[in-house]
# Entry
Amino acid sequence: MEEIVVTAQKREEGLSRVPISISAVAGEAIAEKGTANLEQLSASVPNLRITQTGIANRIVVRGISSGDNKGFEQSAAMFVDGIYYGRDQHHQQQANR
# Structure
């Protein structure tokens, strides 16, 4: 098994030293299932649901989410390559990022 390095706190730490819940999905598993976007990937991660509605993308982590009102930021933030991915994005996020 490979070592998982977590950088959620802006520094490298081993998985056992990080005081947060983490679910990891191997790239091979993503490829085997033919996962094309984060909505499909969320089916493989417990307590995570990512859906796209006609109004906005919705992220739900452990039951915490925001409504579809674009006037408010999402309760669960998403970062892609270290950059905040805000609520106003309305296109399919690619799982291979």
